[in-house]
Automatic annotation (TrEMBL):
Residues in NAD(P) transhydrogenase alpha subunit C-terminal domain copies: 9-92
Primary location group: membrane
Top-level EC class: translocase
Entry-linked Pfam families: PNTB_4TM (PF12769)
EC identifiers of the protein: 7.1.1.1
Protein name: proton-translocating NAD(P)(+) transhydrogenase
Keyword set includes Transmembrane helix: yes
Lineage, broadest ranks: Bacteria, Bacillati, Cyanobacteriota, Cyanophyceae, Pseudanabaenales
Organism: Limnothrix redekei LRLZ20PSL1
Transmembrane regions listed in the UniProt entry: 6-24, 36-56, 62-82
Key words, A-Z: Cell inner membrane, Cell membrane, Membrane, NAD, NADP, Translocase, Transmembrane, Transmembrane helix
């Protein structure tokens, strides 16, 4: 394996572990507002995916970029939908 691939895998595993531990420690009352903010940040992934998927030729990275656009948009829309439902609970 190349050194770049090993470095990428190590960063991915460490980020996954740290992310899991941080989310696991968040109390349930704060989970939805924090995830709402995280979903807003996920919009950045949409911009990056648009750049990757916007190539004129259909290739592997272009297809992965298009899949990333779809998945990131599902995440963003779903997150704001859940946040809206949560905020509706506080209205009388």
């Amino acid at each position: 394996m190349s050194e770049t691939l090993v470095t990428g895998l190590v960063v991915f595993v460490l980020a996954s572990f740290v992310g899991f531990e941080i989310i696991n420690k968040v109390p349930p009352t704060l989970h939805t507002p924090l995830m709402s903010g995280a979903n807003a940040i996920s919009g950045i992934a949409v911009v990056g995916a648009i750049l990757a998927g916007g190539a004129a030729q259909l290739s592997g990275p272009t297809i992965l970029g298009l899949v990333a656009i779809v998945l990131a948009m599902v995440n963003v829309v779903g997150g704001f939908w859940v946040t809206d439902r949560m905020l509706q609970m506080f209205k009388k």
